[in-house]
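does this look right to u?? flavin-adenine dinucleotide version
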Amino acid sequence: LIDPMASGVFAGNPEKMSVNSCFPRIKEIESEYRSLILGLIKLQIAAKKAGTKDKPQAAPAGKLTSFYNGMSELSDAIAAKLGSRLQLSTSVESLNRDGNHYTLHLSNGTEQEAERIILAAPAFAQANILQNLAPDIAQILTDLYYPPLAVCCFGYPQHKIKHDLNGFGFLVPSRERKKILGTLWDVSIFPNRAPEGHVLLRTMVGGARAADYAVEDPEQLSDMVQAELADIMGVDATPDFIKTYRHDKSIPQYTLGHAQRLATIDQLLKQHPNLILTGNAYRGVALNDCVANAYRIAEILVP
Ligand SMILES: Cc1cc2nc3c(=O)[nH]c(=O)nc-3n(C[C@H](O)[C@H](O)[C@H](O)COP(=O)(O)OP(=O)(O)OC[C@H]3O[C@@H](n4cnc5c(N)ncnc54)[C@H](O)[C@@H]3O)c2cc1C
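got this back:
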């Protein structure tokens, strides 16, 4: 159960991950009912009695959501709201503090003063920014591993795929010893992502479990994924649309000790009033978690 979920959500290696930090609901159910299976059965019986429609879940539900035109709708909407306050193509290089005043040093050579700072960049970028101001925090963030992950998008004419695509796709447990982590049947999840009469299959490769495969050259990667899809789903057609994306640093890995490291960071942050660290490196990698954490922070700042 945990193994394919670790791949599906974190592109992670289940041997090294912290269940408490990655899937806190599993830990909650286990602590309350002594066993995950027993807990899920009891919760299902209770839900049935109460006439609740949604089944109790220990893990993220197998339903994927997005915006109609993709995730960029979210960043476009935020950009529109920020207007001229948004500075694109300008990174923060470092941060200094003088009393309660912070100075951001930007890549365009300018500086910006601020009384409150929220860093939401990836952990390795936050580590660079905090190198002078908070080297202890920077070290913890530097150690957070982001494995490489490749995403292969294949489009086919619908009639060439014989396999039933009614579902979200599949995740591969490590004991199957396959080279891919899983494939999303995008055509069933987001029907507008392929032209009429075509299907889109999106396959994840690499992650912490098999990082080497993610860095293969795009042609080799594509051949390998086609061979795996032939083996697993019986897809023998050649895709007429191929696009591969490589994320050299994909998703932060909440390995054993993650909660302890966060507690240490929280302790160290007490020396830096009004400096807030957030983003997917801390308390949830799913986009929903990032948004929920952002609301939590906004409420602290603007009660
Ligand atoms: C291949 C892949 C598939 C995924 N699929 C899903 C999914 O289906 N569902 C889901 O919920 N989650 C998914 N995730 C995870 C989710 O997308 C991320 O965890 C989430 O988007 C992270 O949001 P974030 O704001 O923390 O970081 P990011 O979206 O990485 O944003 C960080 C921002 O910081 C900026 N930045 C970096 N350095 C600096 C600097 N020095 N100064 C200023 N700005 C800087 C970057 O330009 C970027 O805009 C996926 C992740 C990957 C890699």
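The pocket of flavin-adenine dinucleotide is lined by residues 64, 91-92, 120-122, 125, 129, 149, 151, 247, 250-251, 279-280, 285-288, 290 (CB under 6 Å). idk if thats expected tbh
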